[in-house]
Amino acid sequence: MTETIEGHGGDLALAALRAYGVTEMFTLSGGHVFPLYDAAHRAGFPIYDVRHEQSAVFAAEAVAKLRRTPGLAVLTAGPGVTNGVSGLTSAFFNASPVLVLGGRAPAFRWGSGSLQEIDHVPIVASVTKHAATVSGPADIPAAIGAALRASLTPHRGPAFLDLPLEVVFSSASASFVYEPAGVLEPDPDDVSRAATLIADAGKPVIIAGSDVWAGDAVDALRAAAEALDVPVFTNGMGRGALPPGHRLAFSKARRVALKGADVVVVIGTPLDFRLGFGDFGSARVVHVVDAPSQRATHVTPAVSPAGDLRAILTGFASGGARHDDWVGALREAEDAAAAKHAGEMAAESDPIKPARVYGELRKVLAPDAITIGDGGDFVSYAGRYLEPAQPGTWLDPGPYGCLGTGMGYAMGARVTYPDRQICVLMGDGAAGFSLMDAESLARQRLPVVIVVGNNGIWGLEKHPMRAMYGYDVAADLQPELRYDEVVRALGGAGETVAKAGDLGPALERAFAAGVPYLVNVLTDPSDAYPRSSNLA
Beta-strand (E) ranges in 349-419? Predict the structure, then answer.
């Protein structure tokens, strides 16, 4: 149905945004985009502002990840847009449907040296699915529709639109037609071949990633795994797709599984450094992706079905197989690793080991808590020791590995889930990127818990550099800094913990505080995460 929209550029934009399910705006104030604020204010459309533009984009990405609907960031011209590029790039690597609307110097005076005059589109083109400049106010609704359809069509990702000053401030009447994003139907022969290969395998393994959550295919994954009796490991937002305690849910025996598997089924995640670049020895590989563009080119899978993940996994579930001996052997390895981890998480030490932090967190985190990772080694330990009980509750920077996501993700998560626990796990290095936005959270009454693993070093760099060269440079931070006092000064609260026995009570106070609360844990700088993957 065609709708006629009237008003200035902000009104035209807001009507189109709402049609595609956008429910709030994240921004840092700038004059180039005032009409967008005006439209939102008059319509009662929520506006959340931040202290750095990258946090606005990260907040929009958190919304996009958690809700599986578009997230919106509005950035002013020039440095406003360039400050958001890292957020756009993370969204690109994470396949997050984020729309960034950028202000732009006026077209009628282009080349004369207006404030913040720069062509943003070439800068962001390589890290977006769609990037364009809108030429007139009547074109705004259709341009937003096209950008959001591109963003939502698998393989998902961010989109960018430039709104020149005279375009967004001018008024017009425009026609708008809502068109849904496209769905790609998989090749049934590819699905059948893959299902047969899995069913006939003696020791199959499934690794499921974020696109299983993004494509609303969690139930289909569970049905396929149960029908084919295949152990399931997960990463990214796929974590929790099978609840802890499920017979086929595994997390700690992956190395044993991949070493022994004869068929490895990778679903909704790339064959990148996190998965050894797809080198699984003699095992045959089935790579299931949501779009042909995501098929691996550096390896040759036995078969690679592409398209709607629910349809592909529903096709897998039509088969049947049993792998009791294989599942039982992996369960023994899983249980042995779990027992080892339990001992590590309960260990007394001075200074505190990161494992103990997560042992205490496991006691207080609710099953539906949103857990956010922003850091290097400290967050790697989180992935090792925390097990999300539900899918869509784990947020980390993803394969791009950009630090500084924490406060933006926390804002987007709190806006999405007003009544859930929101817990940010942050290295002290990562704290330097975005902690100022604790003020944004406090001022807008968005309480979250921030746990900082404070070892006074860049651990991800210091330990490997010492191993390679016998020394390290540019890898030290000021030890025992009071990040809790920073948050307190910005309107929140917090405390420093130096003894393992004090962790539990401190975390309980944090979750009960009702304000942004930072637990600053002094951790052991000599403790190096046992990293074995090849990052390059």
Answer: 370-374, 394-395
Measured CA angle at 289 (ends 285, 291), to 5 deg: 140
Fold assignment, 188-330 = Rossmann fold (3.40.50)
Whole-number Å distance between alpha carbons of 334 and 245: 11
Residue 234: phi and psi, rounded to 5, are -135, 160
Alpha-carbon distance 70 to 24, whole Å? 10
Structure-token pair, residue 188 = 């049934």
CA 389/CA 383 separation, integer angstroms: 13
**Residue 131 bridge partners (DSSP):** 160
Report the amino acid identity of residue 349.
S
DSSP secondary-structure letter at 108? G
Q: Which CATH topology does 347-522 take?
A: Rossmann fold (3.40.50)
The residue to which tokens 């016998």 are assigned: 470
DSSP-derived pairing of the beta strands 204-208 and 263-267: parallel
CB 85 within 8 A of CB 124: yes
Report if pTM > 0.90: yes
Q: Look up residue 425 and give its amino acid.
A: L
Q: Which phi-psi region, left, alpha or beta, contains residue 268 (left: φ > 0; alpha: ψ -120 to 50)?
A: left
Residue 534: pLDDT band with limits 50, 70, 90: low
Residue among 316, 196, 356, 323 nearest 247 (CA): 323
Buried b (16+ CB within 10 A) or exposed e, 245-262: eeebbbbbbbebbbebbb
Q: Could you report the per-residue pLDDT of 133-159, keeping only the tens digit for each?
A: 999 999 999 999 999 999 999 999 999
The ranges assigned to domains in the chain are 2-177, 188-330, 347-522
**Tokens 């670049």, residue?**
277
Same CATH topology for 2-177 and 188-330?
yes
CATH of 2-177, one of 3.40.50.970, 1.10.10.410, 1.10.3720.10, 1.10.10.10: 3.40.50.970
* Sheet of strand 263-267, all strands in order from the earlier edge strand to the far edge: 232-234, 204-208, 263-267, 284-288
* Rounded distance between C-alpha atoms, residue 88 and residue 347, angstroms: 40
- pLDDT tens figures, 325-384: 999 999 999 999 999 999 999 999 999 999 999 999 999 999 999 999 999 999 999 999
Return the closest-CA partner of residue 515 out of 499, 494, 535, 492.
Answer: 492
